[in-house]
Amino acid sequence: MVGFKNRYMLMEVFLDPDKDLLGEGTPIILTQFNLSKAIKDSILVNFGECGLGSSLGSFQVKYVNPITKLCIVRSSREEHRQVWLAITLVKSIGNCPVILNLLDISGCIRACRDTALKCDKEKFEQCSKSLSEEEIRQMNTSLEKIKLLEN
């Protein structure tokens, strides 16, 4: 039996709270749902319903860290370039303008997880002095969650 081939994309999300489209001062909170919806909308706009249907087979946002803004997206090996292009063309999540930067593409979740863990730890060390107790607790929870990431 042949296993299903996936690609895992590690991305960094840059939020721009100063240029909020509605003029409100609060930036959006990054969640798996928000990111997934933005990418699916981009696939629909750029590739149509057929492109969206072919991409949804294994598309999933596996991990999102709302503090460091790192996320892991899974897609099928056949459609990963289409998903990658759609990710590049995402301009906003909700009403907040964003830029998505691809950091790594991997064929297995373990390699992507290790890279994400390394990036998360580096970013956490850089900004740990300016974080509140709640944010530090949330960051530690996110680090534990990524260590358990397998499927």
Task: Classify the beta-strand content into a percent band.
Answer: 15-25%
Following the backbone from N to C, one meets helices and strands in this order, namely EHEEHEEHH
CATH architecture: 2-Layer Sandwich
Number of helices: 4
Q: What is the CATH homology-level superfamily?
A: Ribonuclease P, Pop5 subunit
Share of helix, binned: 40-55%
Strand order of the largest sheet: 2-3-1-5-4
Main sheet properties: 5 strands, antiparallel
Overview of the structural elements:
By secondary structure, this protein is an alpha+beta fold. The chain has a single domain (6-147), classed as 2-Layer Sandwich (Alpha-Beta Plaits). The protein is 44% helix and 24% strand. It is built from four helices and five strands; from the N terminus they run βαββαββαα. The protein has helices spanning 32-55, 80-88, 109-127, 133-147; strands spanning 6-15, 60-65, 70-76, 92-93, 96-106. A five-stranded antiparallel β-sheet has the order 2-3-1-5-4, sandwiched between helices. α1 (32-55) packs across α2. The longest helix has 24 residues, at 32-55. The mean pLDDT is 84. Essential protein required during embryogenesis. Component of ribonuclease P, a protein complex that generates mature tRNA molecules by cleaving their 5'-ends. Also a component of RNase MRP. This is Probable ribonuclease P/MRP protein subunit POP5. Its main location: nucleus.
